[in-house]
Specification:
This protein is an alpha+beta fold. Among the domains are: 85 residues; 137 residues; 118 residues, PH-domain like (Roll). The chain is built from 22 helices and 16 strands. The strands form four sheets. Strands 9, 10, 11, 12, 13, 14, 15 and 16 form an eight-stranded antiparallel sheet that branches. The chain has a four-stranded mixed sheet with strand order 1-2-4-3. Strand 10 and strand 11 form a beta hairpin. Helix 8 packs across helix 13 and helix 17 packs across helix 18.
Length: 614
């Protein structure tokens, strides 16, 4: 209640300040008009009036905005009777009424909400959100502790006026975003906004401590502490699982048929590693800007609490859901849209994703090979011909720029292993075997591990190339099966590292996006006004890969060199392998996101340095 009441009072104070400033601005404008002219009064007073007006616009938007429920799967008492019985029992022990709805959500979190009316005087529909990955990582005891904590927010009346606090943050956010950073009126509002957040966050931390007490009282300190520590472990496990197992295949155009089932298997297979993470002491760092106390602080308070006896239920928490596989698949249908991606079972999904990554890496080599040899469809056979002619060093020096051609040719055994693996996969004599506890393995038809490293070492030297050919033929690997697919580099999987507005590219006004794989050149207006905002809108309009496909994309791999002719503002020339030159000219008045100009300078210096080393 304190948080919402404080939020309401602070929010009212926000608009009292706005009214005071409105009166002051009007008085100032009238005084200037009387002392000088109406034109001067308007010029000085209008920007200030706009800033004050933004306050009321923000208030209006906040009043009309309602927080939407989290998207997820509604779990009825019929679907999971034991879960509902557990929640009902915990609600009684905490001293509050049972939520009206339980939803599974696709994240490592638990939360509650209440659609209260009349500033919290009249209770509303209550919802309990449980993250399925969290449930899959917990025991029943730990889940009971988490649910008791969330229900403690109800018994502490934290959700009754939660909408007021939510709308207060929203109103202030809307207001600040509409006031220019150089408008003097905005300085007062921004200072007050910081004060508002300090008060609101302090109240939020107090509420979390109160909810922790409910968790300890109902579930016991041991379960409550374990739940806190394991929440961080589950969060790290979910992030790792998505980055290592899901994301590569998703970016390649595939989707797993049972995401949450896969995570459950991953957690079961990685118990030793997760146990190691649990042993780490939680961080004790916290800030007055945090909405939650630090884990170390919360755990210390729990340990100091009296230790009542509680029955232990160490079953996996998924036991409360009945069929966790059915729940996971149903949740996936609700929250994950595969689009045009091919949906595959996990073994086939991992195999397809790994092969796609292998082809992507190989295509990078094949494209350079094609530029060097003039071959339209380069492949492993083209590379073998280059090696036989004693020219591998010419290609290899592009990938090992700090080595001589002879040294680079020897080091090329690593990339060659990649290309031979692709040929083995494409020839149908090698297969990927997935593992939830380690990296994917390359095996033969009999299930034995297949290692092509020795053959790769033979293949990079003209004098042993024939022996490598013979051993590949014995294995059933057909060299011609490994060839380029993406003849032109794309931005698939690329990350944005910078963005600059109004950069002249070959004399044409453009916005320049810098990726970790190349430059994207987008046509831009001549005016430099609101360049940063335009860049933000551009990056939010479509995935980077699509932006690169729709505009001019200059991959770094196609650059032969770069030269900075002037550093302030930047003037530079990019030299491409096809002999063309692209000029870049920074404008004094051009805007940027972050320190993108510094990033551009570093990228150009690196390209120039690599070219010199070659």
């Amino acid at each position: 209640m304190f948080r919402a009441a404080a939020s309401l009072l602070m929010l009212l104070g926000f608009y009292v300040i706005a009214l005071i400033q409105l009166v002051a601005v009007l008085a100032f404008a009238i005084w200037v008009t009387v002392e000088t002219t109406a034109v001067v009064g308007i010029k000085l007073g209008l920007p200030l009036l706009v800033a004050v007006g933004a306050t009321f616009v923000g208030l209006w938007r906040a009043i009309r905005t309602r927080s939407e429920p989290l998207h997820g799967l509604i779990v009825t008492p019929r679907d999971a009777p034991e879960l509902w019985a557990t929640v009902h029992t915990l609600a009684t022990e905490v001293g509050t009424r049972t939520p009206d709805e339980i939803r599974l959500v696709p994240e490592v979190n638990a939360a509650v909400s209440e659609d209260a009316k009349m500033l919290g005087l009249v209770g509303g529909r209550r919802m309990l959100y449980l993250g399925l990955p969290l449930v899959q990582s917990f025991t029943v005891d730990q889940l009971r502790a988490v649910i008791a904590h969330e229900l403690g927010h109800y018994s502490g009346k934290h959700t009754s006026l939660g909408a007021v606090a939510y709308r207060g943050r929203l109103a202030i956010g809307h207001t600040i975003s509409r006031i220019g950073k150089y408008n003097p009126v905005g300085w007062v509002f921004r200072g007050y906004a910081r004060l508002y957040l300090l008060v609101d966050n302090a109240a939020s931390r107090r509420q979390e401590r109160d909810a922790d007490q409910a968790s300890v009282r109902v579930a016991g300190p041991a379960a409550a502490i374990a739940a806190l520590k394991d929440s961080a472990v589950a969060d790290a496990a979910w992030d790792f699982f998505f980055a290592r197992y899901v994301a590569p295949g998703w970016e390649a155009g595939y989707a797993p048929d049972d995401v949450f089932g896969g995570f459950g298997q991953f957690v079961a297979a990685r118990q030793d590693e997760l146990a190691g993470l649990r042993e780490r002491e939680p961080e004790n760092e916290s800030s007055r800007w945090d909405t939650h106390p630090s884990l170390a602080e919360r755990i210390a308070i729990m340990r100091a609490t009296p230790q009542p006896q509680h029955p232990i239920d160490s079953r996996p928490a998924v036991a409360l859901l009945g069929s966790v596989r059915a729940a996971g698949i149903a949740l996936q249908r609700e929250v994950i849209e595969p689009g045009s991606r091919q949906v595959l079972a996990w073994p086939q999904f991992i195999a397809a994703a790994t092969t796609a990554g292998l082809q992507h890496t190989s295509d990078r080599i094949f494209r350079s090979l094609g530029r060097l040899t003039g071959t339209a469809d380069p492949g492993l056979a083209t590379l073998f011909d280059l090696i036989a002619a004693g020219r591998l060093g010419e290609l290899a020096e592009e990938f090992f720029s700090n080595a001589t051609r002879k040294e680079a040719a020897a080091k090329f055994a690593g990339p060659m292993d990649t290309l031979l693996t692709l040929a083995a996969i494409r020839s149908g004599v090698a297969f990927w075997q997935m593992s939830w506890s380690g990296p994917v393995r390359l095996i033969d038809a009999a299930g034995a591990e297949l290692d092509l490293e020795d053959i790769a070492k033979l293949a990079v030297a003209p004098e042993t190339l024939d022996e490598a050919r013979a051993r590949l033929a014995e294995t059933g690997v057909r060299v011609e099966t490994a060839a380029v697919i993406e003849k032109r580099a794309t931005a698939r999987g690329a990350d944005v590292i910078g963005a600059m507005a109004n950069v002249k590219v070959n004399g044409v006004e453009s916005d320049l996006l810098m990726l970790d794989r190349g430059f994207v050149v987008v046509a831009a207006p001549k005016s430099t006004d609101k360049g940063a905002k335009r860049l933000e809108q551009l990056l939010g309009s479509a995935p980077v890969e699509r932006l690169a496909a729709q505009n001019r994309f200059i991959p770094y791999e196609e650059l032969r060199g770069a030269a900075i002719t002037k550093r302030t503002p930047i003037r530079a020339e990019l030299r491409l392998h096809d002999g063309s030159v692209v000029s870049l000219e920074e404008r004094w008045s051009g805007e940027q996101l972050g320190k993108s100009r510094d990033t551009l300078e570093k990228v150009l210096d690196r390209i120039a340095r690599d070219a010199e080393e070659v």
